[in-house]
Amino acid sequence: MFDIGLQEMLVIGVLALLVFGPSKLPELGRMVGRALREFRRASDEFRSTVESNLHINDPDPITPPAPEPVVATPTPVLPSEAEGTIAAEGKTATVTAEPGEPYCAQRGSRLLHKSDCAWVPRIPEAERAYFKHIADARDQGHVMCPVCEPWEPA
């Protein structure tokens, strides 16, 4: 990591022995080892928290396009009835819409997303919790997604 050879390690060991003395050197080594172990544990915990909240390592789900439901009998669609339906070659198809709530979060996660955020399709439908107001989500402990609301320096 630091590209330190045997000679450099010997020089550092002799200097540490001269500065701290033979009685304090084992105690100092234990303290450094504990500090490094605690730092590694904290960094692993932070990494796992970020990965679980943002699902960085999960592949994008591949969803096949859903077939449009088609009515068996072709019926003409009048312009006044065109709301919510699509007319194509004499067939009528119904359009399904996403839930109307503007905010979405995954159950058990702290991140809150806008409905048009790129991360929302990665949340399984059964795991989603919808909110109409951002205040309701903040009351439950959610914070805004950094993709939805990017940080700007002051």
How does this model look, in words?
There is one protein chain. By secondary structure, this protein is an alpha+beta fold. It folds into 3 domains: 6-54, Single alpha-helices involved in coiled-coils or other helix-helix interfaces, CATH 1.20.5; 65-96, no CATH class; 103-144, no CATH class. The protein contains 3 helices and 6 strands. The strands form 2 sheets. It has a 4-stranded mixed β-sheet. A hairpin with a 2-residue loop joins strand 1 and strand 2 (91-94). The longest helix has 30 residues, at 25-54. Mean pLDDT is 74; it is low at 77-98.
List the helices and strands and how they pair.
Elements: H1 6-20, H2 25-54, E1 85-88, E2 91-94, E3 103-106, E4 111-114, E5 128-131, H3 134-139, E6 143-144
Parallel strand pairs: 4-6
Antiparallel strand pairs: 1-2, 3-4, 3-5
Specify the number of helices. Answer: 3
Query: Please, how many domains?
Result: 3
Sketch the topology as an H/E string, one letter per element.
Answer: HHEEEEEHE
Report how far the terminal alpha carbons are from each other: 37 Å
Average pLDDT score: 74
What is the gist of this entry?
This protein is an alpha+beta fold and 154 residues long.
Question: What brief labels describe this structure?
Answer:
154 residues, alpha+beta, Single alpha-helices involved in coiled-coils or other helix-helix interfaces, four-stranded mixed sheet, two-stranded antiparallel ribbon, 6 strands, 14% strand
